[in-house]
Amino acid sequence: MAEVRTIEIRDETIRLGQLLKLADFIDNGSEAKDLLAQGVILVNGEVETRRGRQLAPGDTVSLHGQTVGIASRGV
Questions:
Q1: Pairing of the two strands 4-9 and 66-72
Q2: Which partner for 72 in 8, 11, 39, 57 could form a disulfide, CB atoms 3.0-4.6 Å apart?
Q3: Which residues are CB-contacts of 55 (< 8 A; sequence separation ≥ 6)?
Q4: CA–CA distance from 62 to each of 10, 42, 51, 71, 75 (Å)?
């Protein structure tokens, strides 16, 4: 199984498009749109097509065999 990298977020939720940039999966929003349209981004193991999908601590996002988990920074 692939290693899961953890991304800490400040707020209670983060949009999928923002997380993809934060995790260095993409460089810009149009890249996210293309990948989402291709159906290659998984959220919690299921295909996701909405760039605005709200993610919360405990969610996982996978792309091309890499997975990131979301954790709260707990300010």
A1: parallel
A2: 57
A3: 13, 14, 15, 16, 19, 43, 61, 70
A4: 21, 5, 14, 15, 26
Tokens of 67: 């997975």
Over residues 16-33, the pLDDT tens digits come to 999 999 999 999 888 999
Torsion of CA 29, 35, 38, 42, to 10 degrees: -120
pTM (2 d.p.): 0.90
Domains annotated on the chain, with CATH: 4-72 (3.10.290.10)
Beta bridge partners of 66: 63
Alpha-carbon distance of 4 to 58, in angstroms, equals: 12
Nearest in space to 67 (alpha carbons), one of 8, 28, 18, 23: 23
* Residues 46, 71 contacting (CB under 8 angstroms): no
